[in-house]
What does this fold into?
Amino acid sequence: MATSIAARFSRKVAASAFSGCRNVIGSRSFVTEAAKMISPSSDRVKWDYRGQRKIIPLGQWVPKVAVDAYVAPNVVLAGQVTVNDGASVWNGCVLRGDLNKITVGFCSNVQERCVIHAAWSSPTGLPAETSIERFVTIGAYSLLRSCTIEPECIIGQHSILMEGSLVETHSILEAGSVVPPGRRIPTGELWAGNPASFVRVLTHEETLEIPKLAVAINDLSKEHFSEFLPYSTAYLEVEKLKKSLGITI
It folds into this structure.
């Protein structure tokens, strides 16, 4: 008696388990068939959310990057930004030219995590655009806003240059310095502190080393630049278009 009851119970359990598996398999096949029937619309815009955009046009303004300039993959250039020949913008920098122009001159470099932007106007009456001229080195984590840096200068890391400030040629700003709005750093001088103040006059040998540092960083950027395709990947889009149109050459 007990043996027959146990046998009937085991048969019921097995039958229920089999029916459950059959229902799961059936539901999976239904989902698969439904997925095949649903096709995406041909006019749907396909966005790529896997990475950030390096070049961000704003209205009629599109950032301009010279052919031999190095801009790291995770840099953001927005609006009125110009990166000239031989210049380099390193990882994590943000150059936001939505209100005014930003220019990075020949063989200048903007190092990691710098933020550069510009105001509508300057309270000092000087040009509100941010201008970095040739052979300038901007240290990492610096903040520049509507300032002018003349040729052959060094801005130490973690420095802040505010609206209307001017760094004249052959000058050095020590790390962590803060230049208030409208402050002028005369040519050939070393300044430091918060707020930045005069330290001493640079020697002739020190001024000669300023462009050499910019050239050395430019040479280093060429090694990073060699990791990318020299002619971009635009040809892949052309090949895809040719294939879709059935064009053979």
In short: The first strand starts at residue 55 and ends at 56.
